[in-house]
Amino acid sequence: MGYSEKIILAIVVLIVGKFIISAILNGIGRLRISRSLDSTARQYLMSFVQILLWVVLLIAVIQILGVPMASVITVLASCGLAIDLALQGALSNIAGGVMLMVFRPFNAGDYVAVAGSEGTRSISLFYTMLVTVDNKRLVVPNSQIMNATITNFSSEKLRRVDLDFGVAKSEKPAEIQTIILDAIQGTKKVLSDPAPFARLSGGDDKQMTFTARAWCNSANYWDVYFDLNQNITEALGNKGVKAPAVRMIQD
Predict the structure, then answer these.
(1) Which of 167, 170, 235, 243 has the smallest number of Cβ neighbours within 10 A?
(2) pLDDT tens per residue across span 91-103
(3) Greater confidence, 209 or 248?
(4) Beta-strand (E) ranges in 47-196?
């Protein structure tokens, strides 16, 4: 077989192999055991199988082209240091992915903060993908995630909203506390148990600071956060509560 025929055959095998890989992956996805896995484990399994099949396909194409495997190994060996460094990173990412699957610090759809990034996520063989609230896609190596502190905002059923409000020093603390508590209790999606909280928590010579705390379901956190900000601010204004005096700085 001439070299041109080998190239044509290799291209055909590559194209056909691509369709076969897609068919195999679709078949695995339809298996009952695959459907029984949660989305995190299923994505990781599919990513692993896809990479394995592509490696087999590329080896087959190389053999069709008549390139001796010994020559390929020799070329790879001549780049040993670079390959070794690359594999170290790749293997550490794979190991990180396995550890994420075993210990499960977060699940599909959870909102997490990790390695300086925040978003919902999906795990692949080498990387974890985060999608931010403003719809940016962030790709973080699994090895970085396993070596970083992970904050999972979705793991618990309930979350607490904490807010601080400043009022003038001349106001009466007990009245301010009552106004804030009434505003919290009138806010939708705020839970009555655990009970809302509003107390004087600090201040200086110009103002008093009150801390408001309210519990809600984790899925409602941001709705409650913004509603409380608005409702408490409006309640204080409607009651004629004075704002802190502004300190003027003169040159």
Answers:
(1) 170
(2) 777 777 777 777 7
(3) 209
(4) 111-114, 117-123, 127-131, 137-141, 151-152, 158-168
Q: Are 228 and 212 in contact (CB under 8 A)?
A: yes
In contact, 207 and 169? CB cutoff 8 Å = yes
Tokens of 226: 């913004």
- Return the SS3 of 110: coil
| Locus of tokens 């603390």 | 173
d(C-alpha 164, C-alpha 152), whole Å: 24
Q: Euclidean distance between the first and final Cα of the chain, in Å?
A: 89
**pTM score:** 0.61
- 219 DSSP 8-state letter: G
| Residue in this structure with the two tokens 């170290």, named with its chain if needed | 88
d(CA 160, CA 217): 9
DSSP 191: -
**pLDDT tens-place string over residues 88-138:** 666 777 777 777 777 778 877 788 888 888 887 777 777 888 888 888 888
* 196 preceded by a cis bond (ω within 30 of 0): no
Rounded CA-CA distance 58/71 in Å is: 15
Per the DSSP assignment, residues forming a β-bridge with 131 are 120, 137
